[in-house]
Amino acid sequence: MNWRITSLSLLLGALLGLDGFAQDSIEAVRLELPAAEAIAAGLSNATGIAIGAPSDADAVPERVADVPMYFADPLVRRAASLQKTRNALPPAVRASTATLARLQLADGDAARVRRGDGEAMLKVVADASVPDGCVRIAAAHPTTSMLGPMFGPIAVEAVL
Q1: Is the pTM of this model over 0.90?
Q2: 61 contact partners, CB below 8 Å, separation of at least 6
């Protein structure tokens, strides 16, 4: 079936007078394809730009969000048994100890999180897996839905 689709595409392209459709067989098309090595080289995720830590230690932290598995789907959000599991714990402000220290917060504290007109009160959790300068706050939950986009600067302060 593939050769029929390709042949039909070649025929239509040629009938419409489009450039690049002058081949008269599938073999002619294959001869014009790039080598496998050239395709593999084009799939690299390498970058020539240096990626480093933020230069300003006092900068506003960046929100990095995920959608926990029991927050996303309407069916599991309404399943009382699933909402009692560890995977359905309410969102928290998760950050490295260095980020928490700059924000004058500690593990177990309460924090006020603000973005635009939205505000949430969340528990603070020290999490070594979160990069310095970032806070991980889950999305797709009623307590965090007002915080807007899942990524970007966000204000975090201690609740006294």
Answers
A1: no
A2: 95, 99, 103, 133, 134, 135, 153, 154, 156
